[in-house]
Amino acid sequence: MRYRSDEEDSGRWDGFAFRDGDIVISTRSKSGTTWMQMICALLIFRTPLLPAKLSTLSPWLDWLVVPRDDVWAALDQQQHRRFIKTHTPLDGVPLDPRATYIVVARHPLEMAVSMFHQSRNLDRARIAELTGNPASTYEPPPITEALLAWIDRDVSPAEAMDSLPGVMWHLIDAWQRAAATDNVLLVHYADLSADLDSEMRRIASRLHIDVPEDVWPALVDAARFSRMRDRAAELAPDPAGILKDTRAFFRRGSSGSGRELLTDEDFAHYLDRASELAPSDLLAWLHR
Question: Which of 80, 87, 208, 287 is catalytic?
Answer without folding.
Answer: 87
